[in-house]
């Protein structure tokens, strides 16, 4: 990519107001790591959480992700590969285009300097959200009045992603973020680096549902049952519900081991 991507002119103005509208300003920003840099793929990748302040004095929390020589190989780039953040940026855009709830990208850019491939991705922080894993871990939510509705919606949004022919490839409860209040429930996908488009629904469903079942702790049996009902009821064919008993049986087997 030769030019930086800004979500809107307002986002560009917000970054300019915070002296962070250029690649160099973002790259040299000094602030503690939110996650310690990950050193692999012959490079590194790290994340900071940062408070932008708009002209009204209001705080906008964002995640600024920076990486250098942290590439992944693709069919189009089998030798040098592309920055993993570029793949994540594209995946977020693809899900947004299909109206599948996920992160919001505010900025993306990359450059090559001194033979080093650098990339920056900024996403809006999901303030007020918590992972489905965190929600289920907290005992205070054991009898939460919206617990069943949350699990149903989780199944529905997973199905919406699958119907768009996307497989998350890392679908754990910690990668579904939930925001609930008295009026609304919202669920969004995160960690989209490994998202992949596949032509056949059968390539997506079995692996993905098996994965979330295996990683479902601390979700209860009723949580998983409700999530799967939400998933299958969101489909166009009632015949799919016949596989629900098999999925639940596998889940119970896993729980009893």
What value does the average pLDDT take?
Answer: 89
Any idea what the CATH architecture of the largest domain is? Orthogonal Bundle
CATH superfamily of the largest domain: Transferase(Phosphotransferase) domain 1
Report helical residue fraction. Answer: 25-40%
Beta content: 25-35%
Low-confidence stretches: none
Annotated CATH topology of the largest domain: Transferase(Phosphotransferase), domain 1
**Main CATH class of the largest domain:** Mainly Alpha
* Radius of gyration from CA coordinates: 20 Å
Structural class: alpha+beta
**What is the tally of helical segments?**
8
Number of domains: 2
Helix-strand string = EHHEEEEEHEEEHHEEEEHHH
Q: What is the number of strand segments?
A: 13
Short descriptors:
2 domains, six-stranded antiparallel β-sheet, Transferase(Phosphotransferase), domain 1, 8 helices, alpha+beta, 257 residues, three-stranded antiparallel β-sheet, Phosphorylase Kinase, domain 1
List the helices and strands and how they pair.
Elements (H helix, E strand, L loop, with lengths): L4 E2 L2 H9 L5 H5 L7 E6 L2 E11 L5 E10 L2 E2 L9 E2 H14 L7 E9 L2 E9 L5 E2 H6 L9 H17 L2 E2 L8 E5 L4 E5 L6 E2 L4 H13 L6 H13 L10 H13 L1
Antiparallel strand pairs: 1-7, 2-3, 3-4, 4-8, 5-6, 7-8, 9-11, 10-13, 11-12
Helix pairs in contact: 5-7, 6-8, 7-8
């Amino acid at each position: 990519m030769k030019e930086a991507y800004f979500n809107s002119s307002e986002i560009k103005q917000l970054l300019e107001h915070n002296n962070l509208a250029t690649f160099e300003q973002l790259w040299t920003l000094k602030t503690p790591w939110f996650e310690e840099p990950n050193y692999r793929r012959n490079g590194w990748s790290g994340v900071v959480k940062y408070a932008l302040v708009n002209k009204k004095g209001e705080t906008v929390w964002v995640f600024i992700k920076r990486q250098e020589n942290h590439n992944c190989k693709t069919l189009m780039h089998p030798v040098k590969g592309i920055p993993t953040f570029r793949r994540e940026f594209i995946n977020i855009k693809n899900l947004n285009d299909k109206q599948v709830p996920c992160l919001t990208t505010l900025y993306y850019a990359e450059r090559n300097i001194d033979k080093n491939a650098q990339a920056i991705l900024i996403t809006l922080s999901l303030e007020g959200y918590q992972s489905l894993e965190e929600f289920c871990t907290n005992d205070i939510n054991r009898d939460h009045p919206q617990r069943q509705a949350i699990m149903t919606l989780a199944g529905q949004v997973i199905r919406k992603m699958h119907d768009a022919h996307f497989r998350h490839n890392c679908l754990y409860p910690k990668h579904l973020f939930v925001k609930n209040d008295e009026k609304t429930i919202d669920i969004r996908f995160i960690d989209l680096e490994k998202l992949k488009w596949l032509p056949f629904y059968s390539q997506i469903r079995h692996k993905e549902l098996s994965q979330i079942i295996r990683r479902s702790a601390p979700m209860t049996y009723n949580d998983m049952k409700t999530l799967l009902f939400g998933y299958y009821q969101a489909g166009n064919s009632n015949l799919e519900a016949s596989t629900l008993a098999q999925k639940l049986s596998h889940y119970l087997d896993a729980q009893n081991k």
